[in-house]
Design goal:
Rossmann fold; globular; alpha/beta; 252 residues; 7 strands; seven-stranded parallel sheet
Length: 252
């Protein structure tokens, strides 16, 4: 079965590296036209040059509504449509017990990881998808389904994103399907502190499938959810974690 996105226009936030870039590449290979955005213009330009296909780019701070409006308008001006929105951009400025977080880092994490997906989706809905239909894919995390001694603030936003996915799926149907992907530990620069210097080997041993995730694992799922093969799926969170959540737990 070949999954195709011919004639579709996709916008990927955080699209200049890691999971976002791999999703953009896979979408382009499947025939979609792409708009990628991230904070730095140089990174966007370099990423776009690495993708075969019709690709545009625009820098943005996803947490700023003015930037969201500008990028979505640029997408519509360039391609005349917006069929797929991938809310991938995320941040994690704080590590430690949630109870000790300071207000600025709490607010930044919520702004990028939760507020941005809400309002990028709102703009996409109002300016394109309400009339033309579409697909929204939110990048959550298995952290949103568990607790953590050091990533609690990040995980709270990802848990909220899962609920936001269900809420918007109910509200925007049948024109728009909204789903989420919840990755486990993926070998990206964003998560490097969790897997570099041998730490990833210990995590991989705890996964029933015996390895960490790769960006292509997530991109393949994002392609399926955006394609016609996923056309009867909405409001769902697809967990991609090598079986981590179902691994046997031992008590020391």
């Amino acid at each position: 079965m070949e999954l195709r996105l011919d004639g579709k226009v996709a916008l990927v936030t955080g699209g200049s590296r890691g999971i976002g870039l791999q999703i953009a590449r896979v979408y382009a290979e499947a025939g979609a036209k792409l708009m990628i955005t991230s904070r730095k213009a140089e990174a966007c330009e370099k990423a776009a040059a690495s993708i075969d296909g019709e690709v545009a780019w625009a820098p943005s701070n996803v947490g700023k509504l003015d930037d969201a409006e500008r990028v979505i308008d640029a997408t519509l001006d360039r391609f005349g449509a917006l069929d797929i929105l991938v809310n991938n951009a995320a941040t994690n400025p704080y590590a430690g017990p949630a109870i000790d977080v300071d207000l600025p880092r709490w607010e930044k994490t919520i702004s990028v990881n939760l507020t941005a997906p809400m309002f990028w989706t709102q703009l996409a809905w109002r300016r394109a998808m309400k009339k033309g239909g579409g697909v929204v894919i939110n990048l959550s995390s298995v952290g949103g389904l568990a607790t953590s001694p050091i990533l609690g603030v990040y995980d709270v936003t990802k848990a909220a994103l899962i609920h936001l996915t269900m809420q918007l799926a109910a509200e925007l149907a049948p024109q728009v399907r909204v789903n989420a992907i919840a990755p486990g530990l993926i070998k990206t620069d964003f998560a490097r502190v969790l897997w570099d210097e041998g730490r990833g080997e210990k995590v991989a041993k705890a996964y029933p499938l015996g390895r960490l995730g790769e960006t292509q694992d997530i991109a393949g799922a994002a392609l399926f959810l955006a394609s016609e093969s996923g056309s009867w799926i909405t409001g769902q969170t697809l967990v991609l974690d090598g079986g981590g959540l179902v691994a046997f737990k031992t008590v020391a």
